[in-house]
Specification:
The structure holds 2 protein chains of 2 kinds. Chain A is built from 9 helices and 9 strands. Chain A is α/β, with parallel strands linked by helices. In chain A, the strands form 2 sheets. A 7-stranded parallel β-sheet of chain A has the order 3-2-1-4-5-6-9, with helices on both faces. In chain A, helix 1 packs parallel to helix 2, helix 1 packs across helix 7 and helix 5 packs parallel to helix 6. Chain B is an alpha+beta fold. Chain B has 2 domains: about 110 residues, Uridine Diphospho-n-acetylenolpyruvylglucosamine Reductase, domain 3; about 230 residues, Alpha-Beta Plaits (2-Layer Sandwich). Chain B starts with a strand and ends with a helix. Classes of the chains: A alpha/beta, B alpha+beta. Chains A and B meet through helix 2 of A and strand 5 and helix 2 of B.
Chain lengths: ~250, ~450
């Protein structure tokens, strides 16, 4: 069933993926609320979206590490959105995380604790309303811990499990929970990296897939690009005895 | 290191490419590098947007900051693509004041090359409609330039090929239009002299351009189809039952591979030209309604058309000559080209007016632009054409150029000394440099 339009609250409004998703929703006629830490940057994105599609776009300051501000943030929103989406992903630096507990903690908290707690608040309100879509951006990195980014991967694994549990709990309430697992995406985060073409997506492509999954289809877990699903299936099947010696 | 080339795919140079994620990153990294130049969409044909050492991509600066449909003023970051500007403007009854032959160029590139369109003789270049720019100087500081503040820097940056610093964003004025259709008239000119006369006679038309058959010889040398156009009124479009704002062409042809060079033989292109000329001539004298996209950007309908000349790439040659010398010089140029027998699909002739940037290409006169595949003898031929252009008091377009000599350049750009003097006042300007500036000693 296709929903016509509504209000999207996007957490992570300065990210490349966030901007692409917001543009896509605005183009489809949705009202867009962008939340981010850096007000100046997110306002530039909001103006761009508003100018391109003559859409209603507002900006809201939110620091994903400041969990004590979440209640007030939700209560101050102009309305309870139809769809809430968290696209936050912060890789940090794996080598630094290995020797610096503060840094490691920030990676864990910004990728897991913050997003999970914030979406919990919406889950309660959506369940009471008996409608709404919750979209969380996890990562293929959360499917199996690897030496190159296991703090980030562990946080995303936690977030994946959280979304899975939430979906399980809300499955009879009319609230839907969608887990997005992006592979490589050409954004600021990956600028300058050499990436395999068949496993890499443009932000605009991710936006199309996410919009279709969240608003048109009854999707639960979405890999993007889709080739990541079989790839991660194989990687998950590898016996630990073999996996621990690989450099993936 | 990445190997970069321009749209002509010749020449190719290794360069480090950096892509700052925001202005702050650009400010931080700019002072750290020497031999750096900004690059937008890479649509300059030659070596203008390849850094001597480092190439700074403006791809992440792609946000439209504001648009006011009452005043037509738009502020956009340097990496915003013209096609996006047209979409936004068109939806609110506006159109860019000047568009070049492709809509896949960036704001920064249009200013740096002071691009011209089919209306230069009336409306000037894109730079003439720029009201403000934010410029990132080589030392990492940013300045705002307007007609009242840093005006000299603004004039040097318009047409300055990125050599005064990196343009971060710009404010420019769009023009109101009633619909997305053009009322086009086709005229047939039997030779180049007639084509020049007709362009002059129709100088009051909003837009005019001549397509020249470069392979025609003898009395038909330079035979042309001239297309003049006006923005149509909403009334006349509705009377015809047309949607005032035609949708963009959907299915785009794209060249998936490099064509083998033999495909472009003299015979195949002569055949193409003959058909094109006859079909066009059949429409002469009758006004036609054409969508904006096909009038302004016929080549954009074919994605990656630069592959048609094969892997080796091609040269684009664009010169301008003053009106008094136009007939003789352009006849000489066309005569040598037709005898050389090189295949050029789209050769265009346009009228230009004066320009205001120190290194802007346009001058009062006529400009001829054509493509030449890279093959034996082409460099010698173009050196010969350069002599005709220099003797006539003309010059070559830097955004297209890949091979002119330093001497040709220095003799034909009278604003060069002023430009150099102004550049010397910019702290750290010696650290800005492209392959073009290195070749021409700018």
């Amino acid at each position: 069933m296709m929903k016509t339009t509504g209000t999207l609250l996007l957490i992570g409004g300065t990210s490349g993926i966030g901007r692409a998703v917001a543009l896509h929703y605005a183009k489809a006629g949705w009202r867009v609320r962008l939340a981010a830490r850096n007000l100046e940057e997110v306002e530039c994105n909001a103006n761009d979206i508003a100018v391109r599609y003559e859409a209603e776009v507002t900006t809201h300051v939110l620091d994903i590490l400041r969990t004590d501000t979440f209640e007030a943030f939700v209560n101050r929103l102009p309305e309870l959105p139809d769809t809430v989406m968290c696209v936050i992903g912060w890789m940090g630096s794996q080598p630094q995380a290995e020797v610096d507990l503060d840094h490691a903690g920030q990676v864990l908290r910004s990728n897991f604790e913050g997003p999970a707690l914030l979406l919990s608040l919406f889950a309660e309100r959506f369940a009471a309303r008996r409608a709404g879509v919750i979209v969380g951006f996890s990562s293929v990195a959360g499917d199996r811990g690897r030496a190159s980014n296991y703090y980030y991967g562990a946080a995303k694994a936690g977030f994946t499990a959280f979304l899975s549990g939430l979906r399980n709990r809300l499955s009879t309430t009319g609230v839907r929970v969608v887990t997005i697992k992006p592979g490589f995406v050409r954004t600021k985060m990956t600028a300058g990296m050499v990436l395999p073409a068949c496993l890499t997506a443009d932000p605009a492509h991710v936006a199309r897939v996410v919009f279709a999954a969240a608003e048109d289809r009854r999707a639960d877990v979405v890999y993007v690009p889709g080739l990541w699903r079989p790839v991660m299936f194989v990687i998950k099947c590898l016996p630990e005895m073999i996996f621990k010696r690989l450099h993936l | 290191m990445t190997v970069l080339s321009g749209w002509g795919r010749y020449p190719r140079f290794p360069t480090q490419v950096v892509e700052p994620i925001d202005y702050r990153a650009a400010r931080l990294l700019t002072p750290l590098h020497a031999g750096l130049i900004a690059r937008g969409a890479g649509r300059a044909y030659g070596d203008a947007a390849i850094g001597e050492q480092v190439t700074l991509s403006t791809a992440q600066f792609d946000r439209i900051r504001s648009f006011d449909a009452r005043t037509g003023l738009m502020r956009a970051e340097a990496g915003v693509v013209l096609a996006d500007i047209i979409d936004v403007a068109m939806a609110r009854g506006h159109f860019p004041p000047v568009v070049p032959g492709t809509q896949f160029v960036t704001v920064g590139g249009m200013i740096a090359a002071d691009v011209h369109g089919k209306n230069h003789h009336r409306d000037g270049g894109f730079g003439d409609h720029v009201e403000e720019i934010t410029l990132l100087l080589p030392d990492g500081s940013t300045v705002h330039c307007t007609a009242h503040q840093n005006a000299g820097l603004l004039a040097a940056t318009i047409g300055g090929m990125g050599l005064t610093g990196t343009i971060l964003d710009a404010t420019f004025r769009l023009r109101p239009i009633e619909c997305g259709w053009m009322r086009q008239m086709t005229l047939v000119a039997p030779n180049v002299g007639a084509a020049l006369d007709m362009l002059h006679q129709h100088r009051d038309a909003s837009y005019s351009v001549a397509w020249i058959d470069c392979l025609a010889r003898g009395p038909a040398l330079g035979r042309s189809l001239i297309f003049t156009a006006e923005h149509a009124s909403r009334g006349e479009v509705q009377a015809l039952g047309l949607d005032p704002f035609p949708a963009r062409a959907r299915a785009r042809l794209s060249l998936p591979i490099d064509c083998p060079q033999m495909l472009l033989s003299r015979v195949s292109v002569a055949l193409f030209n003959e058909v094109y000329f006859r079909v066009g001539a059949g429409k002469a004298g009758v006004p036609q309604m054409v969508p904006w996209e096909s009038y302004f950007f016929p080549l954009d309908g074919i994605g990656m058309w630069n592959r048609i000349y094969g892997r080796e790439g091609f040269l684009q040659y664009q010169c301008v000559v003053p009106p008094s010398a136009a007939r003789e010089t352009l006849s000489g140029v066309l005569d040598r080209l037709s005898r050389f027998g090189s295949a050029s699909f789209l050769s265009v002739l346009k009228q230009l007016g004066a320009a205001h940037g120190d290194l802007s290409f346009p001058m009062d006169g006529y400009t001829l632009a054509l493509d030449l595949p890279l093959r034996n003898g082409v460099f010698e031929l173009l050196d010969e054409l350069d002599k005709l252009v220099v003797a006539a008091g003309g010059r070559l377009y830097l955004a297209k150029d890949a091979r002119q000599s330093r001497m040709t350049f220095e003799r034909t750009y009278p604003g060069l000394e002023h430009f150099r003097a102004l550049r010397r006042t910019i702290p750290g300007s010696e650290r800005v440099g492209s392959r073009l500036s290195l070749r021409l000693g700018i």
